[in-house]
């Protein structure tokens, strides 16, 4: 029989934010595979956990996946952790999970700390929809392409303190100084900070305050323009008279009113100029 494999979420800052079950697993497994042994040992030492630890990060994940599978097939138990938060969420683990599934090995995942959910609880939103893109790309072109792609939902991303200032400037240049964003840093730590404001004001704030710690940011979804049915019908009629198809009408008006194009398409199908 194979041993048990556990994905264990660890604190994102405050070391007290670890579950009792996570501590129990870490104390009793035979091995702990971690992103950086130096970082993980800080947590293990705090809770007097003695375990055999080895690294498994994005540069050696394929190789260490085979080691983990070999250990499990010997009947020994392995826990997998990242430096902070939940493994496989913008952290190593995807390759490992794929290999475990190929070998028909059961994966046990323990819920716990995650920067995304911690951040979202402190940011008021009109709906629960959001898009998470992980670490935002470095280039301005790629950043804008992604943010435009997800403009109709609250778009969340991670960024480093070395790049966040430039990222904010790119957002301001593309979407305007009044674009609403939320930004957080040092979550769960002493100097935790979450700010919700226009991108212009956020930039001004960080001109006078240190850019330290890992950042998480949300660009609020674009506000929908209230759809006036009578106005929509008049636009549909005008476009039909000009020879546009229902598909073309739905694309044009969905962009104009920032509405779902399928809804516009259905209106165009049912359109009756006398109604």
Structure description:
With 275 residues, the protein is an alpha/beta fold. The chain is built from 11 helices and 10 strands. Helix 10 crosses helix 11. The strands form 2 sheets. A 5-stranded parallel β-sheet has the order 3-2-4-1-5, sandwiched between helices. A 5-stranded mixed β-sheet has the order 6-7-10-8-9. Helix 2 (37-46) links the parallel strand 2 (31-34) and strand 3. The chain is 41% helix and 18% strand. The N and C termini lie far apart (70 Å). The chain has helices spanning 20-28, 37-46, 61-73, 94-102, 115-120, 140-149, 164-175, 199-207, 229-241, 246-257, 261-270; strands at residues 5-8, 31-34, 52-55, 78-81, 107-110, 130-135, 154-159, 180-185, 193-198, 215-219. The chain has 3 domains: 5-112, Cobalt-precorrin-4 Transmethylase, domain 1, CATH 3.40.1010.10; 116-219, Tetrapyrrole methylase, C-terminal domain (Methyltransferase, Cobalt-precorrin-4 Transmethylase, Domain 2, 2-Layer Sandwich), CATH 3.30.950.10; 229-270.
Give the N-terminus to C-terminus distance in angstroms.
70 Å
Strand numbers in spatial order across the main sheet = 3-2-4-1-5
Strand percent estimate: 15-25%
- What's the story with the biggest beta sheet? 5 strands, parallel
> What ranges have pLDDT less than 50 throughout 5 or more consecutive residues?
none
Find the CATH superfamily of the largest domain: Tetrapyrrole methylase, N-terminal domain
User: What is the count of distinct domains?
Assistant: 3
CATH topology of the largest domain: Cobalt-precorrin-4 Transmethylase, domain 1
Quick one: how many beta strands? Answer: 10
Give the class from helix and strand content and strand pairing: alpha/beta
Summarize model confidence as the mean pLDDT.
92
Helix proportion range = 40-55%
- Assign the CATH class of the largest domain: Alpha Beta
H-E order: EHEHEHEHEHEHEHEEHEHHH
| Rg computed from alpha carbons, rounded to a whole number of angstroms | 24 Å
If classified by CATH, what would the architecture of the largest domain be? 3-Layer(aba) Sandwich
Question: How many alpha or pi helices?
Answer: 11
Shape: elongated
């Amino acid at each position: 029989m194979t041993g048990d494999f556990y994905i264990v979420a660890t604190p994102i800052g405050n070391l007290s934010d670890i579950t009792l079950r996570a501590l129990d697993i870490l104390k009793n497994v035979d091995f702990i595979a971690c992103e950086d042994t130096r970082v993980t040992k800080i947590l293990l030492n705090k809770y007097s956990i003695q375990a055999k630890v080895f690294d498994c990060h994005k540069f050696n994940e394929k190789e260490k996946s085979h080691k983990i599978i070999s250990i499990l097939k010997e009947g020994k138990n392995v826990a997998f952790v990242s430096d902070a938060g939940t493994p496989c969420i913008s952290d190593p683990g995807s390759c490992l999970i794929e290999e475990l599934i190929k070998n028909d090995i059961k994966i046990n995942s323990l819920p716990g700390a995650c920067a995304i959910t911690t951040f979202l609880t402190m940011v008021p939103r009109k709906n629960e929809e959001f898009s998470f893109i992980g670490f935002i790309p470095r280039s301005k072109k790629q950043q804008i392409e992604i943010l435009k792609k997800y403009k109709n939902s609250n778009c969340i991303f991670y960024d480093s303190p070395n790049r966040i200032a430039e990222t904010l400037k790119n957002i301001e240049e593309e979407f305007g100084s009044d674009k609403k964003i939320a930004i957080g840093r040092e979550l769960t730590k002493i100097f935790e900070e979450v700010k919700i404001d226009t991108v212009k004001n956020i930039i001004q704030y960080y001109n006078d305050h240190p850019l330290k710690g890992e950042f998480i940011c949300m660009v609020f979804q674009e506000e929908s323009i209230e759809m006036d049915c009578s106005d929509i019908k008049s636009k549909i009629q005008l476009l039909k008279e000009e020879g546009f198809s229902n598909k073309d009408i739905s694309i044009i008006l969905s962009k104009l009113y920032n509405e779902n194009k399928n809804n516009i398409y259905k209106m165009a199908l049912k359109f009756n100029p006398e109604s």
